[in-house]
Amino acid sequence: MSRPYLKCSVMIKEALEKASNELANARRLLLANEIEHSEYRLIKSDYEKKITGLESKLLELSKESNNIEPLLNKAIATLTSLDKLYENANNENKREIIGSIYPEKLTFDGFHYRTARLNEVVRLI
Questions:
Q1: Per DSSP, what are the bridge partners of residue 113?
Q2: What is the dihedral of CA 73, 77, 78, 83, to 10 degrees?
Q3: Per-residue pLDDT tens over the stretch 80-93
Q4: Are 9 and 61 in the same domain?
Q5: What digits encode the pLDDT tens for the residues 42-58?
Q6: What is the largest CA-CA distance in the chain?
């Protein structure tokens, strides 16, 4: 799962919790006779709409995050044929391929090219 999904998911869950707590507070105010029944019904209606909308967003996000298999298959196919892609690439695309393999800058000491770190996914392959 990607981090944007997690961030959105957490934000929606926090908003859901806040809305539920505010609705519970309104219920307590009603029980304590601090607000009228008509006021509570308005508050309840507003918060139920808000909660339903947030739950729908959360459901949509979870559906989107579950459909990553085609993307993973494409990434694996690309990584396994990286040598062929590099051979057939123009200079700009070769630089992009090298940049994705070595996320930090390459240094040339006059004899050898070096990099401080290799992309973790490429290293595992």
A1: 108
A2: 160
A3: 888 898 899 999 88
A4: yes
A5: 999 999 999 999 998 88
A6: 83
